Amino acid sequence: MNLFSNAEILRNARIQLRPRKMLIAGGICAAISIVLIYGCFRGSIDINGLPLEDRGGLLLHTILWIQAAVLLIGGGIACLHSIQREKDQNTFDFQRITRLTPLELTLGKLFGAPLMIFFVFLCLVPAAIVGAVAGNAPWTIVLVAYILLVLGSLAYLAFAVVISLFLRRGTVTWAILFFLSFVAYTSSTTPFSLYLALCSISPFNAVHLAQQTSWSVSSSVIHLGSMTIPSPDSFQDFFFGVSVHHALVLFIFYITILAWFIPAVARNIKRDPTNYELYTPGQALGFLCYLNFILFAFFRWDTFGLGAVAGRSRPLSPLEAQSILLGVNILLFFIFGFILLRNRNQVRRLLHSGVAGHLETWPAPYLFLGALIVGVAMILVIQWKRDPSLEWRLSVAIFRVAYFAFWLICDFLFLQWTKIQRAAHPLAMGVLYLGVYYACAITVVTSLHAEHNPITAIFLPTPLFVLNTAAWSAHLGVWILALVLQIAAGAVFVALQRRTLANLQPHSSSISMNAPASAPL
Amino acid sequence: MVRLENLTKEYDLPPVKGKPAQVVAADRVNLQIADGEIYGFVGPNGAGKTTTLKMICGLLVPTSGTVEVQGIDVENRPEDAQQFIGYLADFFSLYDDMKVWEYLDYFARAYKMPDAQIPTRVTEVIAWVGLESKRDAFIQGLSRGMKQRLGIARAVLHNPPVLVLDEPASGLDPKARVELKDLLKNLNRQGKTILISSHVLSDLEEICTSVAIMEKGHLLRSGKLSSVMEQSAAETPAARRIRIRVADEGDELLKWLQSRSGVTEVSALPASAAKSSAAEFLFAGRDAELAALVRELIMAGAPVFAVEGSSESFEQIYARLSGGEVM
Fold first, then answer.
1. Do B79 and A101 touch (CB under 8 A)?
2. Interchain proximity B63–A345, CB inside 8 Å
3. Partner residue opposite B218 with nearest CB, options A7, A15, A515
4. Which of A61, A66, A57 is nearest to A32 (CA)?
5. A126, A160, A446, A481: which could form a disulfide with A79 (CB 3.0–4.6 Å)?
6. What are phi and psi of B33, to 5 degrees?
């Protein structure tokens, strides 16, 4: 597949890269480059005392930082508009009906929408080369920094295209705010370091990489309040406890993320929007497993950093490690669950097709399977990594996984039931109701100081995360009751869903017709 | 050949006053559209015309049923089927910041036309829709009619055998409408099958070979325009105005007509010739019943020399079938 012959990229090039626009953008970039070069080598700011090499390095890092910002912010906004704007302007159907394959159209959006941004990026490269040469930077490191910058930006842009695909009219501003917050959050130092022996995944890391003079990793740390986390320029990750260079991890991570996002857009981009489905259930399960693989592989089994939180002096016990893994999995399973949810149109089609099966239990089977796979993997990895001298009980670990599974199933059966209701934004309403329920439950439980009470597990999963062998043995009956009640609540939502599905059966809920049935030719 | 089999589309409308509405936009629609037809889809807003046309193009998935274009299932093999379809939506935009030729060049590439043929085909199509003078103009500077023609140019660019045009005449001035009809007739002469929806029934009656009358997702009538008219005439039609002229003076004719069932509003007309008289009346009955009335009049000794009556127009048939739904 030749990107240069992709019609969608060509269209974007014709619109965005007209000579006049290129001249203006190129002129601005040249002016910025000249000012920065002058500032670094001739300016009188407080770098006068620096040797030439350091000034060159400073120029290189500044240019790289600007390039990263331009790619992520400018490119991100362009990609967020890429599909949504076409839908808004009623031009998207004409693209959908062409013979462009879904992959061609997806790549056209990914590489075509930010073409002007790519041009600006390229215009700044000469200044970066000046900086690299003057700074005597190792060319392999600069090259890899650029590869990571481009790959990482593409991964973020692919995420923006995924978001654009699902945007509704009038929501693009919120999407831009979300995307920029996501970029800012993932580019900050702390988000992953608390649980993962993994440096930042942001393409801004390329700036730190370009500051390195060799490929060696360091174990330098920084202190943020009571936390001790690896320094962004340590470039040391731990893959199941084995030290690996962060550049390698980033390279593989970006490639795999692109391999998840691009097919997700491609499988939907030419579909009827009412029939979007990010992944098939099987693929969604694979995505969950992929995210959990990253979690388990880079988890801080050595408790480095975490051990310093809140003045802890002892390492984490296996049960505490499981608590953290389950806690992170709440987010991962919510992503998984939302991918699995079906809307009314999809359910109608299944009902009309006559091969619906047990629709009323959806998405419980896949959530259960996901919880089973993740839970078993989690327990096996903990068994492998655990310190035998620390607290661990298999029955507690299994109970936690079972409760976690049925708690999630119950919530998602509720959300699936709300999503097939007749309303303008049924899922949003469902999420709102769920949020209100949890807010009220947490308020009541907190006011009673019962966060860790086993009875609380009937309403909230919080006690699960502090469950230890002593609490398990002391209140076994209550824990089992809490689990049974989660299953019972799930059964209620199954029954409610069955009732709603009955109303969606073919033609049972059509508007009344005052005309006779159609007359076939 | 375009074939629709039990095509059904149900969906929900945004809630009105808090009450969401569920609509059957197409209800078990069955149609077979032969090659070379100009097939008109008629119906009021919300009848399901646009939904049906979009399902034919593969832009909407049906709730159930199938669409085949040139023997290809549109839902299962959309890209294979879409190469045979040219589509123009009712509300559409073009890329305002592209030039006319660039726009067509983009779609020619998107339809995977051979590179060598693209410039020739683009020039050909631009000339065909009469936009030669605007070839290098930006689309934003075109008039509504010109944009409509450019839209049609895009739809026919890859020479598809089936054209799906949703309200192509909407927003056009009378002159542009005439040009559009000429374009469509021209395309049909080239062997294209054209599926067209319109609110302007007289236009459809003029160019369509077949029609489908839709209402609330149902197909009320479909088939050759002539057979739809005949079928309609065979049913109990609305009262129509009939004129009878006899070569005789006096008010005998009026009296005779007033005594007949199905005849109302009898009035005398000025005689068209010496020693003749004429009457006009409303007759509620089928063609066969009208024939019987005339035969009876002749048998009664009236020297009938002219019977003038209008058959129902397509517009009247539509109005009767649709129960007065607003177009």
1. yes
2. yes
3. A515
4. A66
5. A160
6. -110, 115
Whether the pLDDT of residue A388 is over 70: the answer is yes
Q: Which residues of A touch B111 (CB under 8 A)?
A: 98-99
CB contact under 8 A, A518 and B30: yes
Low-confidence stretches of chain B (pLDDT < 70) are: 14-22, 232-238, 272, 310-313, 316, 319-327
Distance (Å, whole) CA A350 – CA B210: 34
The bridge status of strand B38-42 relative to strand B64-69 is unpaired
CA B87 to chain centre: 16
For residues A297 and A258, membership in a common domain is answered with: no
* CA-based nearest residue in chain B for residue A13: B98
Interface test with B, best of A6, A8, A92, A97 (most B CBs within 10 A): A97
Same domain, A271 and A304: no
CATH architecture under which domain B239-311 falls: 2-Layer Sandwich (3.30)
Amino acid identity for residue B142 in this structure: L
Among B15, B85, B222, select the one facing A97 at the smallest CB separation.
B85
CATH class of segment(s) B2-232: alpha beta
* pLDDT greater than 60 at residue A491: yes
Residue A519 reports pLDDT greater than 90: no
One domain for residues A206 and A292: no
Q: Are A90 and B92 in contact (CB under 8 A)?
A: yes
Nearest to A96 among B23, B59, B216 (CB): B59
Q: What kind and span of H or E run contains A422?
A: none
What was the pLDDT predicted at A518? Answer: 37
Mean pLDDT lowest among A154-158, A162-166, B165-169 = B165-169
Report the pLDDT value the prediction gives residue A314, as an integer from 0 to 100.
Answer: 60
Is A447 part of any domain?
Answer: yes
Residue A353 lies in a domain: yes
